[in-house]
């Protein structure tokens, strides 16, 4: 690994974004430092972005919710003249390994989804105020905002020039949001997606590519006014003060292991496996949300979430060859459920709401992680409630049955809670249990009837909550053989197979975005027409057009 | 009867795998063992279950221990779990892992491929016992009856050996596969044995001898290739099974030989010189040599089918993975990876059999089959010596490998035993000369009268030169239980 990509940052370190807070309105200004790219070999000209820019944006969005709950409207604008955002940096894409591009796209998509959902989840509405060129990933940033305002200066436009210019597709849901969210007519969308210069002015509004087009002279005032209106109309409760997201406690060992306060990641490179262990709470749950808020980022449920989130991002971008993730827990399930119950019972408290939504996002992140994943429900484990949700996110789960010789930990159990029945939907808008039991909805009801019961192996198996239960005699061998077998399969075939099997049931805009990204964009990113020596990405900026193999596939 | 509730596994199951301290296998065996005993009890006619049979039991793998002779009732036979001693520093002999230390545990990535090979091998073992279940009723002597039962109990032990591997190394799947070995049964419509040849009847004793000569020899070749496995427990298991398999082929070769010898002797005693004077020969109560040739044709070609397709990716995968080697892999002088080697296989082009070179890796089955044919030719030569010594002009021979094939490139084409393509009409006309007819079967069946007096033999077969365990000619190999 050449350079460790760190997903932890804070405003004091930002190079590309700044936020101006003004009561319920925050202005989020993109002002990319062209000399501060994450890697060498390119400059982030014209507000183009790379992963480093997006890591900052993700941090902004996260802190907006936890540290600035008073904000109801976030206005995204450019700090540069004449350009809103030129999208993902082409030189960066041209030089990056395929695996980096794919994981980069996945992360940027997750961030777009997060601020897009902030309005529904937290009452924070993102508005795009577009002045100057807004192309490709730039327009996709705007598309993920829930209101787009475009200046009518006869130059500013919105565009998705990927196809004509680069022979690839917009990578962060652009095509899908144009048709599914903005509901642009498909033939107009077809035109829009094949013209480099994009669409401006009134036509952009007529085609529903933007919500408003405003004369340039009045633009700034109109934006300010609109933001105030949205803030006034917001139903978000007023919160005086947020909590601070303090730095994570994290140590990275020489062998690649990562140790947080509650999460450990052990690495076995020969076996291409990372084992992620989540620890249950030591301390009792806070008495009430006031006590929880007092603990802030140190509160168990939030701390665990942040650490797990970081661990997954770290493994995704920095440990591409660890193809199998093993999820374990250790701790007292009852205690965990007490911590969880405080949040569930106070879900209308702003912070409880944020923490629960954060867990929802993390579980979705687990769902779309393209690694083989297995959960081991061992003795002494605490797969309860939200943590039990992990069992339904991974590809397989194995559970210890009966006592094991020389093992005096409490017998392995799985405990369901209210959290498993609606609070943590997947991208397809179903719960993981509904998705799991697509063909047997009565099994969801049976599972629901078992809420609160510490289910031992046989019962968990009976309810279909685990893949297999194994006793003392079989455990070690079966797990070893499963892992060896899994590690031997083609990683590409695994990625495709798992992504297919994980998302049964209905499509949503979210599943379409990830599914199409995986299937189409990643395919195109591998084709010579895009990335070959004469392909469009390599030739971009040379004045010579890409040379294509004209065979339709 | 064996006490099924209180099985003392250390005394009743001779083993060198530390069975009594292996909780996992013990638990699995406890479940499997009663089913096995039931299978055995339901299989062999009751009066033989109660009879005392002079059997060889393997109690350990050293030269002294692997052949203990004594009278035993078959259901009380001590089926052991015995592996050839571990060879220090053994390495994987072939394929992409060549030279790495042999696996002592199943590598996860090859688990399914390996399991399948073991299941197929294991399935043949009880299959042949099922095919031969009624032969005891028509045994030509107590000596032959004893040999039949010896082969049967050893095939039972081979099943044990494969079941042990499944239960020890393949977890829950392995246990299920072990159970299915007892669920399938030869010739069953519901759940037949996996390979065709093990669903054919063994209707008479000449078939039995031919079967043990030709089909057990396929078993030998498969065991030889599995003995080369990089999975050491499989290799060790198969190496020890081979010591027993040799006896099965001995029973076959000498059985056919004694039949031929008797036929020639009776022909000479009656002044018959023309081996094709079938009616006259048959009237004397012996089996004419052309009929023996037909039986040979049938069993040899059925056995060739057991080697599968000439060109096979499965076989290539197994070799390349180091799970299965070639016959006497360690004596072959090449890179043992077959990266650029070729091998000549048969193919059909425009209705004609042609030979062509293919990558050797894909021709592993073909090569093993060629080795088999060479191995099988030896006994045929010795049978011909018996005929020549008797001064009769007749020569047995292995038919061409294209004849009567149901699997591989020759399947569906009409070849005569010389390997010549013939028309459908010629084929129909030739068949009664090439393969046993129902009438031949009737005749052989008419000779199948049991002889149970010690030292006496049915008229169609000669006594052996030496007894088992050097016992005298009138030794009572089976003390028949009289109900
Ligand atoms: Fe055998
Ligand atoms: Fe045999």
Automatic annotation (TrEMBL), chain A:
One Pfam assignment: ECH_1
InterPro entries documented for this protein: Benz-CoA_dihydrodiol_lyase (IPR017633), ClpP/crotonase-like_dom_sf (IPR029045), Enoyl-CoA_hydra/iso (IPR001753)
GO BP terms: fatty acid beta-oxidation
GO molecular function: lyase activity
Protein name as catalogued: 2,3-dihydro-2,3-dihydroxybenzoyl-CoA ring cleavage enzyme
UniProtKB/TrEMBL annotation, chain B:
GO cellular component: cytosol
PANTHER family (alphabetical): 1,2-PHENYLACETYL-COA EPOXIDASE, SUBUNIT C (PTHR30458:SF0), PHENYLACETIC ACID DEGRADATION PROTEIN PAA (PTHR30458)
Top-rank taxon, per record: Bacteria
NCBIfam families given in the database record: benzo_boxB
Protein name: Benzoyl-CoA oxygenase, component B
Residue runs in coiled coils: none
Cited SUPFAM superfamilies: Ferritin-like (SSF47240)
InterPro entries: Aromatic_CoA_ox/epox, Benzoyl_CoA_Oase_BoxB, Ferritin-like_SF, RNR-like
GO biological process: phenylacetate catabolic process
Molecular function, one GO term: oxidoreductase activity
